[in-house]
């Protein structure tokens, strides 16, 4: 969950930040013209948000890891909206120069805020890859801003919210990404990793990563939970989905209606059905190979490249294992999800 906000945090001026456009993370960004800085703490190093002339852009605190990039690239390939990521590796001269410019921009934009400067020195790894992350200009799925958007917004909930949330949950099961909505896990979830009402989409995932399970018994237990959640999505049952409903209520004060729960299950089933069709058409393996090649290219020349390549193999295996379980539940021709 989000920790207490520090000075210079997004919470202090949330409305002003949310009104900013999102800058493209590609190309030659004007880091030397950064005019404002905020920091959001989090479990994976937090995030620095900088205002540039073309809009806001984020820089991840700590080194970019291969699991985060793989997850974002797979999400894009499957049509699930998550914040885009670009790796800046110090192993290439041009990238090393950009790393220096990013660090200088953060120090300059921090101004007289010594706590922000300290966060930058602590979080930005000197010798590791950095991640430039797309700024998502919505609100986290927590607290009164989320409550207002989901229940009090003029015109009702943004179209597609519950369906897209269901797709995001199904995607998380492929990754064993337990730090969001507690569909296949027994934790409370972290709805701070769901953005709502952004210009990029009604629901956008942030800060996701794939988590392979090396222990055979642990993997078996996880796949059993995936199987149970998939059966619930197919048969409209609610044990696992009730945990999600409870998490939404606790975090936003919104109690989902039967119709909203149905739409969320349909969204989950929709993405799972798409994955099954990829398996049946023998397209999943080439898709995973393409995602892997893209990720390995981003880390080419980085320290530990061989270990990174081995990790990617375990990522693909987990996705394939989950897809196989889902295929067993939905069979060769899963029914199309129907509206509520």
From TrEMBL:
Query: Gene3D superfamilies in the record, alphabetically?
Result: Phosphatidylinositol 3-/4-kinase, catalytic domain, Phosphatidylinositol 3-kinase Catalytic Subunit, Chain A, domain 4
Pfam families xrefs: Act-Frag_cataly
In terms of InterPro entries, this protein maps to: Actin-fragmin_kin_cat_dom, Kinase-like_dom_sf, PI3/4_kinase_cat_sf, Put_AFK
All copies of domain Actin-fragmin kinase catalytic, residue ranges: 29-197
PANTHER family the UniProt entry points to: ACTIN-FRAGMIN KINASE DDB_G0279609-RELATED (PTHR38737:SF1)
For this entry, the protein name equals Actin-fragmin kinase catalytic domain-containing protein
Q: Which organism is it from?
A: Strombidinopsis acuminata
């Amino acid at each position: 969950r989000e920790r207490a906000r520090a000075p210079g945090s997004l919470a202090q001026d949330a409305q002003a930040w949310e009104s900013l456009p999102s800058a493209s993370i590609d190309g030659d960004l004007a880091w030397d013209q950064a005019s404002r800085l905020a920091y959001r703490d989090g479990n994976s190093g937090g995030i620095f948000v900088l205002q540039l002339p073309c809009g806001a852009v984020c820089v991840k605190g700590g080194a970019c890891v291969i699991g985060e990039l793989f997850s974002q690239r797979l999400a894009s390939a499957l049509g699930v909206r998550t914040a885009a990521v670009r790796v800046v590796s110090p192993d290439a001269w041009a990238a090393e120069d950009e790393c220096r410019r990013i660090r200088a921009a953060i120090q300059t934009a921090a101004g007289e805020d010594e706590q922000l400067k300290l966060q930058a020195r602590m979080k930005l790894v000197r010798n590791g890859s950095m991640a430039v992350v797309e700024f998502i200009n919505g609100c986290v799925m927590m607290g009164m801003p989320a409550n207002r958007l989901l229940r009090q917004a003029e015109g009702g909930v943004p179209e597609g919210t519950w369906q897209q949330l269901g797709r995001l949950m199904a995607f998380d099961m492929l990754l064993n990404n337990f730090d969001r909505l507690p569909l296949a896990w027994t934790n409370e979830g972290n709805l701070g990793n769901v953005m709502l009402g952004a210009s990029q989409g009604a629901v956008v995932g942030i800060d996701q990563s794939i988590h392979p399970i090396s222990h055979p018994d642990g993997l078996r237990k996880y796949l059993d939970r995936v199987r149970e959640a998939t059966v619930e999505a197919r048969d409209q049952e609610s044990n696992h989905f009730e945990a999600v409903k409870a998490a939404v209520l606790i975090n936003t004060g919104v109690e989902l209606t039967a119709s909203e729960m149905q739409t969320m299950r349909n969204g989950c089933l929709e993405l799972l059905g798409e994955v099954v069709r990829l398996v049946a058409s023998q397209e999943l393996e080439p898709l995973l190979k393409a995602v892997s090649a893209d990720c390995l290219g981003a880390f080419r020349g980085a320290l530990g490249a061989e270990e990174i390549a081995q990790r990617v193999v375990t990522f693909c295996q987990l996705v394939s294992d989950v897809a196989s379980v889902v295929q067993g539940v939905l069979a060769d021709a899963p029914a199309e999800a129907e509206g509520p």
